[in-house]
Design brief:
By secondary structure, the chain is of the alpha/beta class. It has 2 domains: 2-167 and 348-368, Rossmann fold (3-Layer(aba) Sandwich); 170-346, 3-Layer(aba) Sandwich (Rossmann fold), CATH 3.40.50.2000. It contains 15 helices and 13 strands.
């Protein structure tokens, strides 16, 4: 079976990591193949990463907000690749795939990573997306919250599947030894956040929490990996909070396993989330985590043994959780090791791929009827 993934990528974030992990595991099985179709007017980091990983990846010409030529380009790509299933990610891909293939025998599958209702445009796009998904053969939600929104939008329950994200743990195996070497060398403790610089990720909350933590631990360094529309506002907030020497915004990173080895604690301050891939990657790297109770996160951090879970939007609560872990290096190590074991046991890419293969097979069977 050949699966064509369609995405308008904004950079190397959660959905992109899911696609790479999924295609990598499927490719290694020698039974199925994942192929990528990426809109050419979006970020091309995923296309480049896929090619480096030995995956087949194609660029779909696209111009402006709506390009009438895109449906024909998608149909041509389906024919060129011989795809048996179309797997779209995000509202733009969902709508274009539906326009291109709704009257064809090719099954349509979508993964809904989450919707962000930050403004009127995004709320409209989300509503249109969920309406289109009512016609899809199978729809995957990465969290119970996303699943509920799909059901409320009228997607048939039998077509909705809850599949938790999973990762390939092998690339993160060396992060623990890298971190230990830094600690033995006496490097400053570093607290990291990975995510798009946008309101839903709560980077502003993270910076306000950092300002409080520095009152007790003034040598701590904070770093945010990612890029997005809020960069200028966050740079200004960093200046206002006098964090310019203590918090950095280096932009996206292509070497995430090395980054996780360079920090001692990972924070996710999201206001809204599905299941952040950075959380899974950080835990696989042996990091203790402080995360907000959004989306599927409470199902991952369901006890204090693998991290600390706090309400969203409260810098003081996040600061207290960070401070607790900074006070005790042995506690950080114990929690990090427990987190690593949890990911290996329950959130592997192999498990995720098996769940998706079942959905693909179901979509093919349903379409053939």
């Amino acid at each position: 079976m050949k699966i064509l993934h369609l995405i308008s990528s904004g950079g190397m974030y959660g959905a992109e990591a899911v696609i790479l992990n999924l295609c990598g595991v499927i490719q290694a099985s020698n039974q199925h193949q994942g192929v990528l179709g990426i809109f050419a007017n979006a970020n091309l980091s995923l296309h480049e990463a896929a090619l480096r990983a030995g995956l087949e990846s194609h660029l779909i010409p696209c111009h402006g907000q709506f390009d009438r030529s895109v449906p024909a380009a998608i149909r041509s790509l389906v024919q060129q690749t011989g795809a048996d299933v179309i797997h779209s990610h995000g509202y733009k891909s969902d709508v274009y795939a539906w326009l291109a293939l709704r009257r064809t025998p090719v099954p349509l599958v979508s993964t809904c990573h989450t919707w962000y209702d930050n403004n009127l445009s995004l709320r409209i796009y989300g509503a249109v997306d969920r309406w289109v998904l009512r016609s899809y053969d199978e729809v995957v939600a990465v969290s119970g919250q996303v699943q509920d929104r799909l059901l409320r939008a009228g997607v048939e329950p039998k077509r909705v599947h809850l599949i938790r994200n999973g990762i390939n743990v092998r690339p993160f195996a060396d992060a623990v030894s890298q971190r230990r070497q830094r600690q033995e060398a006496g490097d400053a403790v570093r607290v990291g956040l990975v995510g798009r610089l946008a309101p839903e990720k709560g980077v502003d909350v993270f910076f306000r929490a950092a300002a409080e933590v520095l009152k007790e631990f003034p040598e701590t360094q904070f770093v945010v990996v990612g890029d997005g529309p809020d960069r200028a506002a966050l740079e200004e907030l960093r200046k206002t909070l006098n964090l310019e020497d203590k918090a950095s915004l280096p932009g996206p990173r292509g070497d995430m396993p090395h980054f996780y080895g360079s920090i001692d604690l990972l924070v996710s301050a999201s206001r809204q989330e599905g299941l952040p891939m950075a959380l899974l990657e950080g835990m696989a790297s042996g990091l203790p985590v402080v995360v907000t109770s959004v989306g599927q996160v409470p199902q991952v951090i369901d006890s204090n043994t693998v991290g600390r879970i706090v309400p969203p939007g409260d810098p003081s609560v996040i600061a207290r959780a960070i401070t607790e872990l900074l006070r005790d290096a042995n506690l950080r190590q114990r929690i990090g090791m427990a987190a690593q074991a949890r990911i290996a046991a329950e959130f592997s890419a192999d498990r995720m791929a098996a769940d998706y293969i079942h959905v693909y097979e179901q979509a093919v069977q349903e379409k053939s009827r």
